[in-house]
Write a structure and sequence with these properties.
Helix content: 40-55%
Distance between the termini: 38 Å
Number of helices: 23
Structural class: alpha+beta
Strand content: 5-15%
Largest sheet: 11 strands, mixed
């Protein structure tokens, strides 16, 4: 057995060297997926931190963290989800806490790691919120929590060290001065002071951390109500659970770096489990990816086996049995698969190493040491080997069954078509479709995917029969397409896998594309803008000088817009928020559960608006918020009226306000809640819906008023440059991301659909190109016959074009049909879920086909494949010797 394998591998290695082009093609197809998985593996392991690495970033080289709870006694319990309770029902201690060193092993050292009050730092015209921290980060105990970049640690109360993210935000460097304002200062800390930047660091746990490190003694006492500062502990000996219990007895929590001797274990601790759904999804994705590679590589092995037919026939004539012949072809798969696996792993590791710096810049964390796990990479390379052997199995089976005499004389052997294979494939396709529809009824995504994969495999099994069926159209076509169809039908072992590869790629693209298009259509129909298109909104923030700086920033960056501050009602002490009552009959909708159409009772409305809340203003404010002239409402607002949505307006032209006190249960009895009736007028139903009171009406509610937001409205959408300038000015006020511009519905699937089309187009072009190239190599004798009978030089180009079009066209048509099955199942599952939750569906998810993408996939891509084949094929017909 070993001798047979050695001979087969030797022959396979020699054949791979002879056909370098075909071998390189197969190696590339096997290596590409191995490359991607190998690179992902080393990157995942590099960025996946071990428990010790995570501990180093939070506690440096300390052996434990000690925290005073302020209780007389506590009790810790360990294991995943472990925590602390007060122990024996004891409460807060009434005497001073024991010294930290007294509850630790003799000779232990502690380092305070204190968080300070909230504050802001200002440099020039830029302000940023900041987290203060008192930690001697250069101390050996704290080494690893911060990574020093330049400068030194602060030594006095007038110095501080900034993280690089905060320094970049403030545009400062070493030696610059910043103004610190504390939001919650204690009695010993001034509310505002100037400090000098003496150092720059990076937080090991977060690159974007905006932290200012100050000298340990400069924060003063902790803010009242805050727990004492935690301490990093360095112990002269290994800690034990007895040390933890001793600290607990004094009211301290001692969190060791890792497990310690004597630590109890929780028998109910949850373990890391992989759900069946996750395994199913991963298995389907990996299986379909491997199927894609097998289908692409299969034709190459089929042509290789056909070109070896005389050599394999000589083996049979010399006494080799079918197993020996099959072993030679499988040996070719093993050799090329091993080479592809090794090449893919090596290149993948190299690309992963090159990608680490770029990923580090794009993520918020620092990676650990570059980690390569040989066993995992060997397993990944073995997948490439297995994939290649699977791709060679059918060609090996066909080669073992060839007619030896026909192969030695150069004639084509005739193999019978197995009728049971297409019948079995059709049955699988129908069964898969039924399973997918049943999964949709049960709202099971995994069942839908499994059924769709089964249906796709059934179509793949019927592909040879379909290729032969299409070939029967040849007699009614001109010469070149007739020859292309005849060649595809006669060489199904080469054509069918390529068509199947196109089918698989297009099916996935169509399925995901149709699903995304359906979701996009549903969201577009359901979208309700919260403001007129083009309105810019900045919600109110606690800024020095109020919202006036925000208004000036918008006015300077959007000169053509009208900018106003929008007022709102606020609660006063003893008063709750203003609500609205509608005593008209409760109107039922198809989405209302348990609705009685004739039921009449008071109900509460929480009205949405471009800003939110109950607004206060005049006609200028109303015009900006609605984007329409508001002069008709001027008299109403002046005499203490309200502008409301249509559903709040009562028949007598008034609106009733509820003025509850704090603590009133608004969802219960409303009889004792004070009420206020105001004259009102409704807004048009096709515009923004909000509630706005005039100044006199707001005063009658007894509530306070404040600023809800600053809004800017113009006749046109703000340009990207205007929005960027506005965001830049707001960032100086530390309002990053505060600006919201209403641009209408913005679908997010366009880029994804484009990526799907491009991805499937690459596979379609690749598969059709492979099939065309293999057909040209395999059909040199037929081309020689064409040359002998006087075919023109352009005939070879047109033949290649139609051969490519047959592969791409048939594959895309079948793939489109296969892709609609999971898409329809997913949309049906969404509607079934909505039906279960709402009894009826007023706005169901539609099944929307991405027609533009389908036209590109089914029509444009095959034409491009045919054109590429025609341009890349030499027009000169070969002259070769043909055997009689």
């Amino acid at each position: 057995m070993i001798g047979r394998a050695r001979v087969a591998l030797r022959i396979a290695r020699r054949d791979a060297r002879r056909a370098r082009g075909r071998s390189a093609l197969v190696v590339a197809m096997i290596a590409l997926p191995v490359l991607g998985v190998g690179a992902a593996d080393v990157l995942y392991r590099t960025f996946q931190l071990s428990p010790d690495q995570k501990a180093a970033r939070s506690m440096g080289t300390a052996d434990a963290v000690l925290q005073d709870t302020g209780l007389t006694r506590v009790r810790q319990y360990s294991g995943p989800g472990g925590g602390v309770d007060s122990g024996d029902g004891t409460g807060a201690r009434t005497r001073p806490a024991a010294s930290p060193t007294s509850v630790l092993p003799s000779g232990s050292r502690v380092l305070v790691n204190q968080d300070g009050p909230r504050g802001t730092l200002t440099a020039g015209d830029t302000t940023s919120t900041v987290a203060l921290r008192a930690l001697a980060y250069t101390d050996p105990v704290a080494r690893g929590i911060y990574v020093p970049r330049s400068g030194r640690a602060p030594r006095t109360a007038g110095e501080l060290t900034l993280t690089t993210a905060l320094a970049d935000r403030l545009h400062v460097t070493l030696g610059d001065s910043v103004r610190l304002r504390l939001v919650d200062p204690d009695a010993t800390s001034p509310s505002s002071r100037t400090l000098t930047v003496v150092g720059l660091v990076d937080a090991a746990s977060s690159r974007s951390s905006r932290t200012a490190l100050v000298a340990p003694a400069s924060l003063g006492k902790p803010v009242a109500g805050n727990p004492p500062a935690p301490m990093l502990v360095r112990s002269p000996r290994p800690l034990s659970w007895a040390d933890v219990e001793r600290a607990n007895a004094a009211g301290y929590v001692l969190q060791p770096r890792g497990d310690v001797p004597g630590q109890p274990r929780r028998v109910d601790a949850p373990g890391a489990t992989v759900t069946t759904s996750t395994l199913t999804a991963v298995s389907l994705v990996v299986g379909m990816a491997l199927l894609e590679v097998v289908l692409l590589a299969g034709p190459a092995f089929a042509v290789g086996a056909k070109r070896q037919s005389r050599e394999l026939a000589l083996l049979s004539a010399s006494g080799a049995d079918r197993e020996d012949v099959r072993g030679v072809v499988l040996g070719g798969g093993a050799v090329l698969g091993a080479v592809g696996g090794v090449v893919g792993v090596v290149v993948g590791v190299g690309l992963g190493r090159l990608a680490v710096p770029e990923l580090t810049r794009r993520t918020d964390t620092f990676p650990g040491p570059f980690e390569v796990r040989p066993l995992e990479l060997c397993a990944i390379a073995a997948v490439g080997l297995i994939t290649a052997v699977l791709a060679a199995m059918l060609p090996a089976r066909s080669a073992a069954r060839q007619d030896v005499v026909a192969a030695l004389t150069g004639r084509r052997g005739q193999l019978r078509d197995l009728k049971r294979v297409p019948l079995l494939g059709a049955a699988l396709a129908v069964l898969g479709a039924v399973i997918a529809l049943e999964g949709a009824r049960r709202r099971s995504v995994n069942t839908i995917l499994a059924g769709s994969a089964l249906a796709e495999l059934g179509l793949v099994a019927t592909t040879p029969f379909l290729v032969g069926l299409v070939g029967r159209l040849g007699p009614w076509l001109p010469l070149s397409p007739r020859l292309a169809l005849r060649d595809a039908a006669r060489n199904r072992s080469r054509t069918a896998p390529a068509v199947s590869a196109v089918l698989a790629a297009v099916a996935g693209s169509v399925a995901v594309g149709t699903y995304l298009s359906s979701l996009d259509s549903y969201h577009r129909d359901s979208y309700q803008p919260s403001a007129p298109i083009g309105m810019s909104v900045v919600p109110a923030h606690d800024l020095t000088g109020g919202m006036l700086p925000v208004q000036r920033a918008l006015e300077s960056t959007m000169p053509e817009a009208t900018v106003v501050q929008v007022g709102t009602l606020t609660s006063k002490v003893g008063k709750g928020p203003v609500q609205f009552s509608d005593v008209s009959a409760l109107r039922c909708t198809q989405t209302t559960v348990g609705c009685a159409p004739q039921q009449a009772r008071p109900r509460l409305h929480h009205v949405g608006s471009p800003v939110g809340g109950t607004l206060v203003g005049d006609t200028a404010t109303l015009a900006v918020l609605t984007g329409r002239p508001a002069g008709a409402y001027a008299d109403l607002l002046a005499r203490g009226g309200a502008v409301v949505p249509q559903e709040l307006l009562r028949k007598d032209g008034t609106v009733e306000l509820l003025l509850p006190r704090l603590g009133d249960a608004l969802d219960g009895d409303l009889k004792n809640v004070p009420r206020l009736v105001l004259p009102a007028r409704a807004l048009p139903v096709d515009g923004p819906q909000l509630v706005l009171l005039g100044d006199s009406a707001a005063a009658r509610t007894g509530s306070g008023t404040g600023v809800a937001a600053v809004v800017a409205s113009a006749a046109h959408l703000p340009s990207a440059a205007e929005e960027d300038r506005a965001r830049h000015e707001l960032a100086k006020l530390d309002l990053d991301g505060a600006l919201r511009v209403e641009r209408g519905y913005q679908g997010g699937s366009a880029l994804g659909l484009l990526a799907l089309v491009l991805g499937s187009a690459v596979i379609v072009l690749g598969a059709s190109g492979i099939a065309t190239g293999l057909a040209a190599a395999d059909g040199r004798a037929d081309l020689a016959t064409l040359a002998a009978v006087g075919a023109s030089p352009g005939r070879r180009r047109s033949l290649a074009a139609f051969q490519s079009a047959v592969t791409a066209g048939l594959g895309t048509i079948l793939g489109t049909a296969a892709g609609l099955v999971p898409a329809a199942g997913m949309v049906r599952a969404l509607n079934a879920e909505a039906l279960q939750q709402r009894f009826t569906v007023t706005n169901p998810y539609p099944l929307v086909l991405p027609w533009r993408n389908l036209v590109v996939t089914v029509v444009v891509v095959p034409l491009v494949a045919a054109l590429a084949a025609a341009l890349l094929t030499r027009s000169r017909l070969p002259l070769v010797r043909r055997l009689a």
